[in-house]
Amino acid sequence: MKKFMKTCHKCKTDVKVAKCTKEGVELNCLRCPKCGEEYFTSSELVKFDILTGKRKMVRKFGNLGDSVVIRFPAQVLKDHKIKPGDYGVFENRPDGILIKPIHAKDF
Ligand SMILES: [Zn+2]
Known about the structure:
By secondary structure, the chain is of the alpha+beta class. It is built from 2 helices and 7 strands; from the N terminus they run βββαββαββ. The chain has helices at 42-52, 74-79; strands at 16-22, 25-31, 38-39, 62-64, 67-69, 87-93, 96-102. The longest helix has 11 residues, at 42-52. It is elongated and about 60 Å long. Residues 8, 10-11, 13, 32, 34-35, 37 line the site of zinc ion.
């Protein structure tokens, strides 16, 4: 694992790459040898959410015929008032994909 930070935010001691167990799930982390503070990357936290079933905002890519599909979390659809028939514009971003909804009723 890449060391994404050098020193502990709390006591400024050099952190070390370690394996941490969070609620029974083993994750890669950086641990402070002095105060024991553990630091996780966002991808390790997503892994934790998937393995513990706490994946409200994580969806798996699936297949539908020749297409790859992904289901939307209900909360996202509600927050953005997305309905079947609306459009989504994909924008590539350095850290992922942004989907901008366009409502069919606005045409
Ligand atoms: Zn520390």
